[in-house]
Design brief:
The complex is a heterodimer of chains A (343) and B (293). With 343 residues, chain A is α/β, with parallel strands linked by helices. In chain A, 34% of the residues lie in helices and 20% in strands. In chain A, the strands form 2 sheets. Chain A has an 8-stranded mixed sheet, with helices on both faces. In chain A, strands 2-1-4-5 form a 4-stranded antiparallel sheet, covered by helices on one side. In chain A, helix 5 crosses helix 6 and helix 5 runs parallel beside helix 8. Chain A is globular, with a radius of gyration of 21 Å. Chain A starts with a helix and ends with a helix. With 293 residues, chain B is mainly alpha-helical. Chain B has a single domain, classed as MetI-like fold. Chain B is built from 11 helices and no strands. In chain B, helix 9 runs parallel beside helix 10. The relative contact order of chain B is 0.15. The chains are: A alpha/beta (343), B mainly alpha (293). The interface between A and B is medium-sized, with 35 and 27 residues.
């Protein structure tokens, strides 16, 4: 960073102010697997404020889903044993290996929806009953009225009658609406949506994203949306965290990530999206593949594929804040104009 | 469900309701329907035994010992002059009850243990599974005979013995099914809405492990009926003078040359009822198999 001390102070002050309405802050999430030197997820930090949508992007296997599962203590037991890190939730601090503490958040403070609406509902029970069950877990009363109300809010017609349907009587989009109703019936502070539209067709995708947006707009809810669809990110995100091989390589406001990507991986991702306008050119791609956990390089994990890699990249790059809220984990950030143009 | 609601559901989602699909497949399954008919006939006869115009199954008639089938005694009489038709129908009660009650015992013990083993895995699973395998290593009938001999001869004890002997199969089956169901997305989403483990076991795992258990139960009723007949044949089941097919066969074996009808009728009854349950079980398995469409 080349900024004056005074500017440095200002940005810090700015952040301190915004911290007050910070809903969750995940710090230093690390997931280790016994027998492997390098962790699967390495020092991930994220923060979401009320009313904001954080999109976590990255390719398959980069640790997006593990991060979200660690957040609510739902990792498979073998991975749960290797978890460390801290979760700040609405002022409380919870250690990420404290499953009991995390389980208290589930359903009440944090709602979650999954990728596969077709298989995420219990086929043995009516949908109304399943929503009511989520309500009863955390509240008095039978939850029937709340279930009807939630079905109405997620846009299911004739909710009183639909209450009595079994999951197999609904289409994929309808089931995802029911999942959202289940996740939100207790008015959670945070909704985690793990690729909620991947299994749906494009028109339904748009409807579901719009629905999540509209449910969030009224309240104080933060949304963590995990996706690998940059089109979705551009549409709904307030902030973006780009993950690569178990680390957050770049994070910041959506405008900064799309308009001024700084990490070579982010730049590669952005240029691999086909443009609708302009001359047709060969679609850019990031060369190579993600190294496996055994062959993961020390230091910067992107170094094996990075066009700018230098000997220095064998050291782990610190996450540097190059603009307010915009952090990049690269030794060369902020990028030289010349280099950025070359990329 | 009302007709309007059904109509509405089909309009919104062109997926046929699995429940009615299963019923449809079962109803269209000829051998299953034949099996169901056989089983129903025996169940109806057993239920109606007290009101049918039958001779007292325990009343000896010294004037009509070992009579061949006749107008007075359609199925003949046994060595004490008791009416064989009446004894066969009353005997159906013991056999069917033994079949159903022992399977109910096996399910009541086996399914919860299987669900627990499959869901929790690890040490819990290892302990339950090793015990199950130890029991499975013993042949079903030998185990049932050993237990019945240990408990003492009576129909109740025979049912308990058969039930316990049939339990390991249900533990095994349920465990495997529970492992599958535990990995389902809807169980993960149940965790995500914060449901407690007992609720997840009861409302998410249990109902979804049931279909194969149902098939196994139907087939095991057939084995249990044979086991009860075997135990009664050995004198470990139904005690005289109360009628039971196995006990009837036991007596009949001494008169095979002089009065073969004494052995034929209970033999046919056992054959038909076991065939009925097996056909029904096979049909249920086909109907519940999602791949057979």
């Amino acid at each position: 960073m080349h900024s004056e001390p005074i500017l440095n102070w200002f940005t810090r002050w700015g952040r301190a102010v915004t911290r007050a309405d910070e809903l969750i802050s995940l710090t230093d999430l690390t997931i280790r697997v016994p027998g492997y030197e390098r962790p699967l997820v390495d020092g991930v930090g994220l923060s979401i404020r009320r009313g904001e949508t954080l999109c976590v992007v990255g390719e398959s296997g980069c640790g997006k889903s593990l991060t979200s599962l660690a957040l609510i203590g739902l990792l498979p037991p073998a991975l749960q044993r290797g978890v460390s890190g801290q979760l700040g939730f609405d002022g409380d601090r919870i250690a990420l290996d404290d499953q009991r503490g995390l389980s208290r958040l589930r359903g009440r403070n944090v709602g979650m929806i999954f990728q596969e609406p077709m298989s995420s509902l219990n086929p043995a029970h009516r949908i109304g009953e399943q929503i009511a069950e989520a309500w009863r877990r955390h509240n008095p009363g039978d939850g029937q009225a709340q279930a009807v109300e939630m079905l109405r809010r997620v846009g299911i017609p004739a909710p009183e009658r639909r209450m009595r349907d079994y999951p197999h009587q609904l289409s994929g989009g309808m089931r995802q609406r029911v999942m959202i109703a289940m996740a939100l019936v207790n008015s959670p502070d945070l909704l985690i949506a793990d690729e909620p539209t991947t299994a749906l067709d494009v028109t339904i995708q748009a409807q579901i994203l719009e629905l999540i947006g509209s449910l969030q707009a009224g309240g104080e809810m933060g949304v963590m949306l995990i996706t690998h669809d940059l089109g979705v990110v551009a549409e709904v995100a307030t902030n973006v965290a780009v993950m690569y091989a178990g680390r957050v390589v770049e994070s910041g406001p959506v405008e900064a990530i799309f308009g001024d990507p700084q990490h070579p991986y982010t730049i590669g991702l952005m240029s691999s999206v086909p443009a609708l306008r302009g001359p047709r050119t060969r679609l850019a791609s990031v060369p190579g593949i993600v190294p496996s956990i055994e062959t993961m390089p020390p230091g910067c994990r992107f170094a094996t594929r990075c066009p700018f890699a230098q000997p220095r990249c064998a050291d782990t790059p610190p996450s540097a804040e190059i603009a307010p809220g915009h952090s990049v984990a690269c030794h060369f950030a902020p990028l030289d104009e010349r280099l950025a143009g070359a990329a | 469900m009302t007709e309007a609601a059904t109509h509405n559901a089909t309009a919104a989602a062109p997926i046929r309701k699995p429940r009615s699909r299963v019923w449809g497949k079962l109803l269209a399954h000829r051998s299953a329907m034949f099996g169901a008919a056989l089983v129903s006939v025996f169940i109806l006869l057993a239920l109606a035994a007290p009101i049918l115009p039958l001779a007292d199954p325990a009343a000896a008639d010294w004037a009509a010992i070992r009579q061949p089938p006749s107008a007075a005694h359609w199925f003949g009489t046994d060595e004490l002059g008791r009416d064989q038709l009446s004894r066969m129908i009353w005997g159906a009660r013991a056999s069917l009850m033994a079949g159903v009650v022992s399977v109910a015992i096996a399910i009541a013990i086996g399914v919860p243990l299987g669900v627990i083993a499959g869901y929790f895995g690890g040490w819990t699973d290892a302990i339950i599974s090793r015990c199950t395998e130890a029991l499975l290593a013993m042949p079903f009938l030998i185990l049932a005979i050993a237990l019945a001999a240990f408990l003492g001869p009576s129909l109740t004890n025979a049912m308990i013995a058969i039930g316990i002997a049939a339990t390991p199969v249900f533990i095994r089956l349920t465990r495997g099914q529970a492992i599958n169901v535990t990995a389902e997305d809807y169980v993960e989403s149940a965790h995500a809405i914060g449901l407690s483990t007992p609720v997840i076991l009861r409302r998410y795992i249990f109902p979804n492990v049931l279909p194969p258990v149902l098939v196994q139960a139907t087939l095991t009723v057939a084995s249990a009926i044979i086991a009860e007949a075997s135990l009664s044949f050995l004198g470990l089941g139904q005690q005289p003078p109360a009628p039971s097919w196995g006990a009837m066969l036991n007596v009949a074996k001494g008169f095979m040359a002089q009065a073969p009808w004494m052995a034929v009728w209970p033999g046919i009854a056992i054959f038909l009822v076991v065939l009925g349950f097996n056909l029904l079980g096979d049909g249920l398995r086909d109907a519940l198999d999602p791949r057979e469409d």
